[in-house]
Amino acid sequence: MPKAKANRGGLKMISCPRCGKRFFSETNVLQHMNQPTGTCRFASWHEECSRSFSQARCPPSDNSVPCSSINRPPHFPSADSNAYQDWDLNPPSPEVHETEDFTMDAPEEVIPLVPGKFVEVYEGSSEEWQFASWLLRSRLSLTAIDSLLALDIGIPLSFRTGKQLRARAEVLPSGPAWLCEEMEPESPTKHPVRLFYRQPLECLQSLLSHPLLTPHISFVPRKVWTSSARVCRIYDEWLSGDRAWEIQDALPRDATVLGVVLSSDKTNISVMTGNRVAHPVLISLANIDASIRSKTSLHGYLLLALLPIPKFVHKTTRVRGLLQDRLIHQALNWVLTPLKTAATVGIMMSDPAGNLRYCYTPLASWIADTPEECLIAATSPKASPITTATSKNFGDPFHHPPRTSSITLSAIQRACAEQDPFDYKNFIKVIRALRLNGVVEPVWKGWPLSEPSDFITPEPLHHFHRFSWDHDTRWCILATGAAEFDYRFSLLQTLVGYRAFEDGISKLKQVTGRDHRAIQCYIVGVIAGSVPRRFLTAIRSLMDFRYLAQAPMFTDDSLTELASALQDFYDNKDAITAAGARKDSWEIPKLELLQSIVPSIRLSGAVMQWSADPTEHAHVQEIKVPARAGNNRDYYNQIARHLDRAEKCLRFDIATYMESKRGEEDLRVDEIEGNETEQDKEHEPDEEEFPTDHLAATRSPINYFTIADALVRGCIPNAPRPYRTFSTATTAFHLSTKPSLRLSVDEVAAVFNLPDLRAAISEYLHRLESGMPHRVSGVRSQQDHQLPFDRLQIWCKVRVQQMRYHSRQTPDTLQTLRAFHPSTVNPHGLYDAAIVNADPDSDWPQRGLEGHSVVQLRMIFRPLHSELLAAYVQRFDVVAQQGNTNNRNAGTGMYLVRQAVRSNGSRIGDVLPITLIRSPAHLIPHFGKEAHSRLTSQTSYELSSDFWLNKYWSKEFYYALSSSSR
Known about the structure:
Elements: E1 14-15, E2 22-23, H1 26-33, H2 39-57, H3 67-71, E3 85-87, H4 115-121, H5 126-137, H6 142-149, H7 162-171, E4 178-183, E5 193-198, H8 200-208, E6 222-225, E7 233-235, H9 242-250, E8 256-257, E9 260-264, E10 267-268, E11 277-285, H10 290-293, E12 302-307, H11 317-345, E13 347-350, E14 356-360, E15 363-367, H12 370-377, H13 405-418, H14 424-434, H15 452-455, H16 460-480, H17 482-490, H18 513-520, H19 523-527, H20 533-549, E16 554-555, H21 556-572, H22 574-578, H23 589-593, H24 597-604, H25 613-628, H26 635-672, H27 678-682, H28 690-694, H29 704-712, E17 725-727, E18 731-734, E19 741-744, H30 745-751, H31 757-770, E20 791-795, E21 797-802, E22 815-820, E23 830-831, E24 833-837, E25 852-863, E26 870-878, E27 895-899, E28 909-913, E29 917-921, E30 923-925, E31 946-949, H32 955-963
Parallel strand pairs: 3-6, 8-14, 9-15
Antiparallel strand pairs: 1-2, 4-5, 5-12, 6-7, 7-16, 9-11, 10-11, 11-12, 13-14, 17-18, 18-21, 19-20, 20-25, 21-22, 22-23, 24-25, 24-29, 25-26, 26-27, 26-28, 27-31, 30-31
Helix pairs in contact: 1-7, 4-26, 13-14, 16-17, 16-18, 20-21, 25-26
């Protein structure tokens, strides 16, 4: 029999501080207060919220500023105000200003990550905590945890059951609390409607207090210029756009702008069967650097609410859709009202440094797909959520006027005047003509400084990549023919890490965003020659527009180029209709939304910061994993419980990590304290700053530039020579410690089918001795081909790394160049293309292909007992294009290259230092009108002579090749 509980029959001595209910222990009280569905939490929040609103409306007290002084501030920031700055490329650090008192109460205090306080809560060993943390975050049920704890695992534990473990977890300080609200919909539903949510102001304060995000939060709007002449603006983060500047200009002096970022979208919970769907709302801050906010591992997006998805009993489908839309806005209004109030009267919040700031919370961006954008904007799918365009105008080649809140609210008011909103069937007839979705009280109504045309920002995942799959790809399949289209895709050889489509793409099902991007890398080169030139120009223009729009920063000049690319599509889109790939109608909502991208960049910065990629990944961790860890019942309740435990563990992990680093730092300081001089003490860092030195905001990728520099400086004394990791100013290289082959020169020439290898090596050595520049000319000036060595070490691949085009101090992802000799798997070998330097004065990537050559990497070698590392390459020549001074093909926008051959038909090749390689490259065979039926993926590159230099295979490569034409 199970043991009777020790406290059974005892007195309940401890009361809940909120509702007064009595319990046996503090643990029971904590569990009661943390119940998401409990009325205790709801009543407490509701009382605080009501008190906040009453204080915002009531006469001022001794500790508050009158509401009149908030609504009509005595002064606004002037052009030279310190509230925001006009910056050059290297702006000064912003100042932190003292703030005034406030009229709205600060949100309920979120327990800060104070290491000492956290460590006192959990007194177990570090090994015990690691095990307990893993159990709390796992998908194991309580029964499975009990079975595991019954085993002898060799770790002394202070808990023996899953309930005891979770009870201990309840004691850990938590983040924003989960609340539950029972909602009353307009029409009966099959089940009760419950809204799970957290206070948005608490979530924002939690983000502001996050120690990993502290170095990456900014508060001052700025204007950045390319030069001190202030002629050309730069747009990157939200604070660099015009909208943040205008919002700051409309607020009282010394007020702080907190740009609220929201994201909502439905996501499937159940797998295969069940048809269970969740509708999460995420929240973040536009003040956080976009590169940090997009890292899902840093939890830059917090789950704010789980919107209800009820099943209405009404018989009419259209009416049920209207009721669901209204309920969504009703729930959002309930959750987001504190943010509206803070955006109206301001609120005091603590910044990462602990200073109080007088903050306003305008809506910076709402990240959503196209149907969700129409839902938020209260428009029908037949109207644009951003502009006044309707479905008949979606194909217009110009930007329509913005759809402001006054326009939509006037249409709603007119509809309500013509018909009762609760007479659903007749009301639907009225709103259909007005292009509305039936929502009467939109969530953005009454939200100051927040226009739907401004905060509904372009979303690359759906507006770019999904649009490309749904339309561009279908047009190309219809124009080329499905069989020919698939056959061409199957002939491509891709680089390491890039997807290959061995069976084509026309029959793909359940295509992901990664597949959309992979197809975009090749589609222009694949269809070249098989479609009319203007059709090809239209597809290429759209692809140029997407690639240019995904840049992390823009200038006024690049925005002009971006608009020009879109205009090129409109100038040639009739060719798509003429080819039979599209009907006369251009009712494509995403096409009309492309017209808003350039204005949005000027207002809100680069569009990539509003991509749904991080929010879609957040749905997995915040929704799907917790839901699938439960018992498939009452999903929302179990998600809230799981996230509450996981967040407690995460906060405790961060705090203990900070505490351990603090102890290590104190110990190190104590050891060197006696030996340091007074001059050393003057340059000591601030004690408050040391934790950020140990907290890496992101996991740094392998940086071969740093490793190569350390080798040169002798920091790794036992490294084999020549160093296998080395770098130039633009490119870093890494070879494996052990080579793939060790053969004689003649054996290598036979294995790799390079009959002139010995002569090429002899010419290479002659150029080294005479100091001549290295070029792939095929000239053999040496008659005697005797070499001072006979054996070679061969590598079949080399890893290459470059710096990012828009951030010259940030290393890009690693790329692998292959040079595999013929084998049974690859009868013709496998040789990747590369860009090599041909002019010492040329600069990659700033000058593009100018001063560089396209080559095929055939072999990587090192003479035995030598320091030389070299590569045998074969050259491609750029085919001149009539009418184009830059030699780019007018249809594809790419270079057409041809194998360089001698008069006897043999290919021209030479040996170069491996350090002359600047970048990997990708080639697509020029198939012509119809690809040869005997080609295969193994022979297509060896039997073809003309290739397209595919600039779309990588965005960094695209920017490099496009730079020379700007």
